[in-house]
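Page 37, continued from 36.
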């Protein structure tokens, strides 16, 4: 019985890393923007994003035109989210407090277009076409 358990444990240790690797997304040539958390406070909903620059060069400044939809699907507002400087391959966390909005009232976030992509050797279209949006919360994120 001990040998069977040891074999089963060894098999599990081999399969778990493979399953975990299958869930990772390749961000090469993309900008991955994940809505990680949202929280209410002081009359605003704070959206926390994890952003990873998968391009081969640092991005000096990245700004997306963003549309926020309420929970009924209507446009609440159009705004700019400035993600700042993003080094190659190193995740960064950015927060945006949206005044006069509750997180419960937020239904969807749409990255509507690129406003600014400042990076030496990188075309504007690389930041626009290479956007990879996702969400860890119940709020849908599109791009």
């Amino acid at each position: 019985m001990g040998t069977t358990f040891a074999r089963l444990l060894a098999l599990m240790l081999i399969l778990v890393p493979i399953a975990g690797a299958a869930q990772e997304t390749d961000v090469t040539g993309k900008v991955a923007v994940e809505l990680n958390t949202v929280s209410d406070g002081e009359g605003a909903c704070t959206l926390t994003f994890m952003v990873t620059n998968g391009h081969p060069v640092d991005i000096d400044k990245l700004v997306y035109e963003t549309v926020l939809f309420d929970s009924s699907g209507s446009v609440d507002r159009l705004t700019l989210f400035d993600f700042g400087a993003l080094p190659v391959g190193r995740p960064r966390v950015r927060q945006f407090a949206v005044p006069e909005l509750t997180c419960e009232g937020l239904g969807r976030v749409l990255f509507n277009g690129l406003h600014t992509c400042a990076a030496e050797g990188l075309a504007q279209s690389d930041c626009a076409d290479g956007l990879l949006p996702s969400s860890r919360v119940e709020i849908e994120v599109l791009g």
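Residues 73 and 139 are 12 Å apart (CA to CA). Flag for discussion at group meeting. Residues 4-23 have pLDDT under 50 and may be disordered.
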